[in-house]
Each structure stands twice: as structure tokens, then as C-alpha cells.
Design goal:
The structure holds 2 protein chains of 2 kinds. By secondary structure, chain A is mainly alpha-helical. Chain A has 9 helices and no strands. The longest helix of chain B is centred in the N-terminal third of the chain and has 38 residues. Classes of the chains: A mainly alpha, B mainly alpha.
Chain lengths: 221, 298
């Protein structure tokens, strides 16, 4: 604990670093994931193949392997990431985390759309609503309600996975605070307890908030 | 197809449009693949001396490379198997403790579960590998990985089992009580066996997560699991032969993980279908990924 108290500014910096990585990766994952979900329900087979392959590859391989690919293999074929504050691993890390999480976002969105009973859209068409009206007034509002809880747990899991990006060598992330503490002579127990508490400060309130939202928007059927 | 319910059955014009769209998307996809291959060739990444050691059995290094990788993979699979066993045992105990009626236990168990669930698994692994030696418990590195993974996965398994028990109809517990079983007996003889059964697909899905997370063993100093071994081989080729195998090696590593985990995923679906067909339990089996209460770990 003494590490957390004495080195609070460095923990705070790491805390903000974790939030920064998570924010960038969350935006990327939500955009790519929604796009992939659209691909997977598309009537065009080539787009469905892209969606299915992406999900199969990223869901079944470890994030650590994807980090190695983005940081060490892609530069070999001419994909150069810019540095971020002098840190070469930041953008490869964020990109890998976003691409990995996108596969799970895609599955959450897709199962949300699938969860709306077909009778809803059929009934909307039967009373004469147009395609836009059916989608906007009937299907999407219901799909959104079922998508939010699983999407929330995917994002919380992504915040936890940002620690892997930190372990990988992105400095200025919570996990990397420990390396500096060890150099200053703090015990691993003291230093890592601080790291653990800092993660819990993010994940536990996020989980409670998600539970609250879940109860508020629950579909009463 | 999901969108079909949003439209009427497509007429000839819509079908023609869909065919044109398919052709355009197909050409674009083919173009993208060609572009990637050209880019690879431009950077000499398609050379036989780079792919050969990993994918060509006739290559002189093939046997040595895969013997080394096989050793790492064996460590990875051992760690995953040990974690599964320990996490199942501890997870069941935690679930029983949480469901048993004494409130004095319950808040303690709930606190432990919530704390461990909120931590990144890479932190629990690193914690085990750094703190245990510091307090005088020196173990082979494999055990730090197993302990770190178990600490996280046992609470996930406890939550999966609790969700399984909650999914059973109340009549099951009520009938057990009515014939005179106490709470623990009800759990042990009536509820948990059924919970295991309906949550088996979810438990297999969790095994996929465990297999993937063994790769986080790279944070443990001096432990050669699959990914670390792959990096050692890359360094060897880079140093001794001046050949950078990074791309090819990670493709091979990812393929091995995808094969194992895709197989496990299909097994989970198969088990789910089998259980749903021959239902001898009162509740629906579930794969349980991304289901209620944020159980899903990715």
C-alpha cells in the first residue's frame, strides 16, 4: 500500500494512461465491430465471408499473439505506426486491442439484432410501415436494449485487456507503473496491490453502472 | 439472414441488384487479397526460406523448429489443463459457499468473487509470479501461471454455476426440500448436477478463454510457454541466420491457437445441441457467452 500512497502521481498517470488506451480502443472496436455485424447480416456473400473470417481469427487467437503481430510482424511488410509521446508500441497496441475487441462487439450486436422476434417486423410491415419506419421505430430500439448489456461487458473486459497492452511495453499504462516502482525499491506486494486497486477503481464502478443501466432498460415481455 | 424479415421477399429487380453487389464486392475482395500478396512479395515475405522452416516438412530446420515449439505448446496445454481442474474444484466450492444459506459467509464470498472478477488476468498472473517468491514460496514458473489463471477463472466458473442453478425451476429445490434434504444436500444431489449439465457448453467456452490466456505466461520471467518459445525461435533465426521469421512464426502460432479454440467452440455448440435435444433437465442449456451479469470474459 505504501507504494500507492507515496507514488500516487505515477499511479494517477498510469490510471489516465489506461483510460486513454481504453477510450481509443473502445471507439475503434465499436466502429469496426458494428461494421462487421452489418457485414455478417449482409445479403452479399463476400461481405459475410469477411465478417466471419475476422470473427473466427480474432476470437480464437490470444490478444498477446495479435499484439506481437501488430508490433513486430506488420512493420516488416511496410505497415508503419506513428509513435505516441515517443512510445512506439502505443498505436500497435491500441489497434490490436481494437481489432480483437471488434470481433466480440460484432457478435454482441449481431445477437442483439437476431433477438428481436421476427413477428415484430412482420407486424410493422403488415400495418404499412416503410422499411425505414420498421427499422427505426420497431426493430432498432428493441435491438439496442438487448445489445447494451453484453456490449457493456465486452467493453469492461476490454479495459481489463488493456493491461496486456501495458504488460507488452506500453509505458504510461497502469501495468507499467510497477516497473518504475521496482526500480525505486518497493516490494512487489506493495507495488502490485496498488496496481490491482487502481484497476478495481475502474472495473467495479463500471460493472455497477452496467447493472444499473441493464435494470433500467430491461425489455418487459 | 436477419435482414430478410425487414424486407418483403426480393423481386427480380432486388435480386439483380444483389447479384451485381455480390460481383462488385467479390472483385473488391479479390483485389484486396492481390494487393496484400503484392505487398508481401515486395517486402520479401513470401520467400521459401521464411515459410519453409515452419510449413515445409522437407526443410532442414522443420523438425528442430517444431520440436522446440512442441515443447512450448506442451507447457501451454499442461497449464490450461491444470487450471481447468483447479478452477472447476475451487469454482464449485465458491458457488456452494455463495448459494449456501449462511449470510456470514455470503458477503465474504461475494466480496472475493467481485474483487477477483474485476482484475485483469494478466495482473493476477504477474502478481502470483512476483509476490509468491517474495513471501518465500518459490515454485516452478508453470505454477505461477496456473495459480494466476486459477484465481481468476475459479470465480468465473462459480458465477457460471450460479447462473445454472438460478436457471433451474424453483420446483427442483422445493421438491428436494419437501423430501427432507437439507440445503447442502439439495445443492449437491439435485441442483449442481443439473447446473453442470446445462452449463457444460458455457464451461467449454470458458476453456477457450483459459487456453488463450495461457499465452499471458510471457510476463513470467523464464517461463517457456508456446508464445515465448516462438519468440526464442525468431531470435535464433534472426541471430544465427539473419532471417526474420516474425510474420511467418506468428501466423503459425495463431493458426495453432485458432485450430484448438475453433475445435473447442464447435464442441461447445455440439454439446449444446445434444443437450437441448435429449433434455433430461428442466432448463435450457446455454453457451453462455456474453450472457447476463457480465460473466463473459474475452
Amino acid at each position: 500500500m505504501d507504494a500507492l500512497i507515496n507514488e500516487f502521481p505515477r499511479y494517477w498517470e498510469g490510471f489516465l494512461g489506461t483510460l486513454r488506451i481504453s477510450l481509443f480502443a473502445a471507439i475503434g472496436a465499436l466502429v469496426i465491430g458494428t461494421l462487421l455485424a452489418a457485414f455478417r447480416v449482409s445479403p452479399l456473400p463476400p461481405l459475410r465471408w469477411v465478417g466471419t473470417s475476422w470473427v473466427t481469427v480474432f476470437r480464437n487467437s490470444p490478444l498477446a499473439v495479435m499484439l506481437f503481430v501488430f508490433a513486430f510482424a506488420l512493420p516488416l511488410v511496410g505497415v508503419k505506426f506513428p509513435t505516441f509521446g515517443g512510445n512506439a508500441f502505443f498505436w500497435p497496441g491500441v489497434t490490436a486491442l481494437a481489432c480483437y475487441t471488434a470481433a466480440f462487439v460484432c457478435e454482441a450486436v449481431r445477437s442483439g439484432i437476431n433477438s428481436v422476434p421476427p413477428g415484430q417486423a412482420e407486424a410493422a410491415r403488415a400495418v404499412g410501415l416503410t422499411f425505414q419506419q420498421t427499422l427505426g421505430a420497431i426493430v432498432l430500439p428493441q435491438a439496442l436494449r438487448t445489445v447494451v448489456p453484453p456490449l457493456g461487458s465486452v467493453i469492461i473486459a476490454m479495459i481489463k485487456n488493456s493491461a496486456i497492452v501495458g504488460a507488452f511495453g506500453v509505458t504510461g499504462e497502469l501495468f507499467s507503473v510497477d516497473a518504475g516502482n521496482t526500480a525505486l525499491g518497493y516490494s512487489a506486494l506493495s507495488s502490485l496491490t496498488g496496481v490491482a486497486i487502481a484497476y478495481l477503481v475502474i472495473t467495479i464502478p463500471a460493472g455497477l453502472l452496467l447493472g444499473f443501466i441493464e435494470r433500467r432498460i430491461e425489455v418487459k415481455r | 439472414m436477419t435482414t430478410s424479415v425487414l424486407y418483403d421477399v426480393p423481386g427480380p429487380v432486388t435480386r439483380r441488384r444483389a447479384n451485381i453487389g455480390t460481383a462488385v464486392a467479390g472483385v473488391a475482395l479479390a483485389g484486396l487479397i492481390v494487393l496484400i500478396l503484392v505487398q508481401l512479395a515486395d517486402h520479401d515475405q513470401l520467400d521459401a526460406d521464411k515459410w519453409g522452416p515452419l510449413f515445409n516438412p522437407a526443410n532442414q530446420y522443420f523438425v528442430a523448429v517444431w520440436t522446440a515449439l512442441g515443447g512450448g505448446l506442451a507447457n501451454t496445454i499442461t497449464a490450461a489443463a491444470l487450471t481447468l481442474v483447479f478452477a472447476l474444484v475451487l469454482g464449485t466450492l465458491l458457488a456452494v459457499a455463495r448459494l449456501s444459506s449462511l449470510p456470514a459467509y455470503r458477503w465474504l464470498v461475494v466480496t472475493v468473487i467481485e474483487l477477483l472478477r474485476g482484475l485483469p488476468v494478466v495482473v493476477t498472473i504477474y502478481f502470483a509470479s512476483r509476490v509468491l517468491p517474495e513471501v518465500g514460496i518459490s515454485l516452478p514458473p508453470l505454477w505461477y501461471l496456473v495459480i494466476g489463471l486459477t484465481a481468476y477463472n475459479c470465480v468465473i466458473i462459480a458465477e457460471i454455476l450460479r447462473a445454472g442453478v438460478a436457471a433451474l425451476p424453483r420446483g427442483q429445490a422445493e421438491a428436494a426440500m419437501a423430501v427432507g434434504l437439507n440445503r447442502l444436500e439439495t445443492l449437491r444431489m439435485i441442483l449442481l448436477p443439473q447446473a453442470f449439465r446445462i452449463m457444460l457448453p458455457a464451461l467449454i467456452s470458458q476453456l477457450v478463454v483459459i487456453v488463450k490466456d495461457t499465452s499471458l505466461g510471457f510476463v513470467i520471467f523464464g517461463f517457456s510457454e508456446f508464445v515465448r518459445t516462438a519468440n526464442t525461435v525468431i531470435q535464433f533465426f534472426g541471430g544465427k541466420l539473419g532471417v526474420n521469421l516474425a510474420l511467418q512464426m506468428y501466423v503459425a502460432v495463431a493458426l495453432v491457437f485458432i485450430l484448438i479454440n475453433y475445435g473447442l467452440g464447435r464442441l461447445a455448440e455440439l454439446v449444446q445441441r445434444r443437450l437441448a435435444r435429449g433434455r433430461r433437465s428442466a432448463a435450457e442449456p446455454t453457451v453462455g457467452e456474453a450472457t447476463g451479469g457480465g460473466i463473459s470474459a474475452i
